[in-house]
Design a protein that fits this description.
By secondary structure, the chain is mainly α. It has 2 domains: about 1-180 and about 270-415, no CATH class; about 190-255. Helices cover about 70% and strands about 5% of the residues. It has 18 helices and 3 strands. It has helices spanning about 1-10, 15-35, 50-70, 70-75, 80-95, 115-130, 140-160, 165-170, 175-180, 185-200, 205-220, 225-255, 255-265, 280-290, 300-305, 315-350, 355-375, 395-415, and strands spanning about 95-100, 100-110, 110-115. It has a 3-stranded antiparallel beta sheet, with helices on one face. Strand 1 (about 95-100) and strand 2 form a beta hairpin. Helix 17 packs antiparallel against helix 18.
Length: about 425
Amino acid sequence: MRDNKSVFSNIDWTTVLIFLALAITGWISVYAAVYDEDHKSIFDLSQRYGKQLLWIALGGLLAFIVLLTDPKFFNAFAFPIYLVTILMLIAVLVFGSTISGSKSWFQIGGYAIQPAEFAKFSTALALASYFGKLDIGYAQLRTRIVTAAIILLPALLILMQYDTGSALVFSAFILVFYREGMSGVPLLLGLAAVVLFLLTLYFEPVYVIIGMAILVGASLFFVKRNLQNILTLIGILAIASIFVISVEYVYENVLETHQRTRISVLLGLDDDLLGAGYNVHQSKIAIGSGGFSGKGFLNGTQTKFNFVPEQSTDFIFCTVGEEWGFLGSLVIVGLYISLFLRLIFLAERQRSVFARVYGYSILSVLFFHFAVNIGMTIGLVPVIGIPLPFISYGGSSLWAFTIMLFVFLKQDANRLNIL
């Protein structure tokens, strides 16, 4: 009992309070998003908000169990847990149910479980456990191959379920690599690839290549003009040109029709307010109509009349924007930023590599969800269908995020016992 008391006394209660604030906000927001006159009780378990309260309560129980667990368990069993989620991802391809076009759910009675959400947690554990081994550094080629495989395996299995959004979340782990010593070059190359991809969609490939050739020619005036530098610049131009030429093929033959449409609408290349652009258009109307202080709780017209599809899940933030306005949205964003800054602080004070890498892993996943979810509700990124952490309706995501967070809080509470 003495050990349990000391563990609970070392828990970072600031993070716990932020978690509770976000979870309660989510419960209230789900209630507002699906409220109707026939079901007024916020505790009605037949409605989504009642189920969300149940998810929160069970999530609290899971958090309590995690805090009672020996912190060494998560490192010791990281790869077995990872293997179990991989098997679940394979099983759902065979036995799973298709919901919203993705075969990524196990249907159990009236409830559904999505293994992809828990795969993010197990991948974070596996990465942390691998990095935590002695004499392992990111500079080693073997480390890069193994860590890439740990991430790509669940991502590819999720992609096979036609759940592109969840698969893209795994790209967030690159931030962990950067913290552990990866050069900034891959990030710059990724940014350059995105810029070239967008330019190729706006302009003919030949014009993009001509523009790059002009830039390469101009750069010769700023570098030493020797054979090695000239060949390097020519090689960069050749690789970039091949990429530009391949963009059109990928866009037309690899991406699904609905994915191309969403990108075209987002970039203003197409206008489809009654089709692919409908959700985002209505979401922006809802958020904009909230003004500075909002229309008031349960008074959102866009929300009340169901103009925005998936408003209790992927587009929950537009409910916040309409009913609570700019001020309410600012509070929610402030809570997330506070959580992220707190996680960085906690991760940097860890004494073990396992705990530090795991902390940055969950930070990366939570930040990706936050940035992309809010970005798609205001039309800054394509709609890829991922939940807002702790706020969107859904048991799988809420439980997975809760377990991820409290495993890290358990590691942090135990840091003083690590020599």
